[in-house]
Amino acid sequence: MSTSNRITTTAGTPVPTNETAKTAGKRGPTLLEDYQLIEKLAHQNRERIPERVVHAKGWGAQGTFTVTHDITQYTCASLFSEVGKKTDVLSRWSTVAGESGAADAERDVRGFSLKFYTEEGNWDMVGNNTPIFFIRDGYKFPDFIRTQKRHPKTNLRSPEAMFDFWASHPESVHQVTILMSDRGLPINPMHMNGYGSHTFSMWNKKGERFWVKFHFKTQQGHKHYTNAEAETLIGKTRESYQEDLFNAIDNGHFPKWTMYIQVMPEEEAGQQSYNPFDLTKVWPHDDYPLIEVGELEMNKNPDNYFQMIENAAYSPSNVVPGIGFSPDKMLQARIFSYADAHRYRLGTHYEALPANAPKASVVKHYHKDGAMRFFTNDFDNANAYYEPNQYEAAHTGLEYPEPPLKIDGDANRYDVEDKDIDYVQPRALFELMDQAQRERMFNNYAAAMGPCSDSVKNRWYSVLEKVHPDYAQGVKAAVEALDTDVNTVPITDDTPKEV
Ligand code: NDP
Ligand code: HEM
């Protein structure tokens, strides 16, 4: 009998049947000795891992990045070394707040993560579909996220908490404007842009540093749902993004994005009215035009979703020579946070899982052992398990080292001095919108803010007033016109203190 197609235990021994458990007698109870029954039940109990604390619901694909324009004057990163060069990429798009079973078509910011498997290790671009963020200091991230998640008593999402937090942080109005605009609800990941959002740096072979922003513009065009369209859709399917993406790729309609960078010479930082390292600010295109770099095409559905997408571990700390960080405070917090999250969610050796293991570079490190050490890193010589050692001449160092970054100033906790700066760019965005776009945004606000208390509503109207009087007026009118018989109750048990 051929043994190649037999069901086996995890130890590889043949299983006599997968139909019936072993019992004491025809109608008797099951026997403890039915090891395979126990193994099946025990494995099932361990099939789930902790979901991501944010961005839990996601969709992903594999594909290729191709360089179309030369940017070697800005970076020595090997993936950009010549026009025509191709690099394998793993993408994952996500909503931020919803749990892993959340409906896809919900109004939320979308994550936009790309892992480039370069010859010099993995570069992770862990961005969003927005060029900015709600807050500018990582110190506030856990509090912010708490307002996006469930209330401890009701176990419901709380608009009261969201707008309470935003009203205390006027820098959030830029991102909230995008969230409430058409772009807050794309029809699927293929119809939205991606942004690195933070300022990063690049350095070239001459050791010159540049500040950069990353942009991935959809070639499919922007498409969005209204709230009403999304509600109808969610009634039919909660998995619309997964369906659209999987089917598009399966049918050979590969989605594409054009990659651009904005470049600021190192010495120009500080010459702007805004802080170029503040994540709540963009760099206006007129000042820093988009420079075309290449094309991203996602063309393969992973064979196993869990293995490639759920196990994917993206981190802004994964940079490659030629791409570096910046003084952005949020970025600094993220550089710590992600690898820590991965060790908790996936285990000590998460980097060696198929989704995360470098594909185009040789991994050679001296981390040893620990839970689930399922790979070898003896590198052909079992004696070379510490470094330096007498057996091998592996070396460290970069061919083109990162130039030093000048830093000065007193260690302290700083807030921004010019608060009015937070309203300038949201105003520019509001002024870009035509009246129909504005009306849709006002109505989206009404749906989102309807359940909030008057005190929270009024505090948010004051923020909007500083952006543009028409903005505040439009939102207020839409909220007041709303049918107030909403079935979600704001948490106003305690009288809010004066803020
Ligand atoms: P531009 O007119 O050169 O650029 C405006 C940008 O806004 C375009 O990239 C456009 O994207 C994008 N956009 C249009 N509608 C929306 C929306 N509802 N939500 C988010 N983005 C939208 O002007 P500036 O560069 O001077 O920027 C003006 C304002 O535009 C900024 O204050 C910022 O709010 C917003 N913005 C700026 C970006 C930047 O990097 N400079 C990037 C994205 C937004 P597209 O080209 O895809 O249509
Ligand atoms: C996921 C932390 C800000 C984009 C995550 C995860 C953590 C985290 C812990 C889960 C990681 C995992 O389990 O795999 C933080 C902290 C932030 C911050 C501490 C601020 C200090 C941001 C910003 C962006 C962003 C500003 C975008 C510009 C993402 C994306 C994911 C993610 C896209 C999902 C990655 C994936 O697809 O697996 N974040 N985050 N985050 N974050 Fe952040």
Automatic annotation (TrEMBL):
Name the segments for region: Disordered. 1-26
Does the keyword Oxidoreductase feature in the UniProt annotation?
yes
Reported EC number(s) for this entry are: 1.11.1.6
Give the Pfam families listed for this entry: Catalase (PF00199), Catalase-rel (PF06628)
**Keyword list, A-Z:** Heme, Hydrogen peroxide, Iron, Metal-binding, Oxidoreductase, Peroxidase
What is catalysed by this protein?
2 H2O2 = O2 + 2 H2O
InterPro entries documented for this protein: Catalase, Catalase_3, Catalase_clade1/3, Catalase_core, Catalase_haem_BS, Catalase_immune_responsive, Catalase_sf
Q: Which cofactor does it need?
A: heme
Coiled-coil annotated residue ranges, if any: none
Q: What class of enzyme is it?
A: oxidoreductase
Question: Where in the numbering of this chain does the Catalase core domain appear?
Answer: 8-395
Query: Residue ranges under compositional bias (Polar residues)?
Result: 1-21
Q: Which family does it belong to?
A: Belongs to the catalase family.
- In its UniProt entry, what is this protein called? catalase
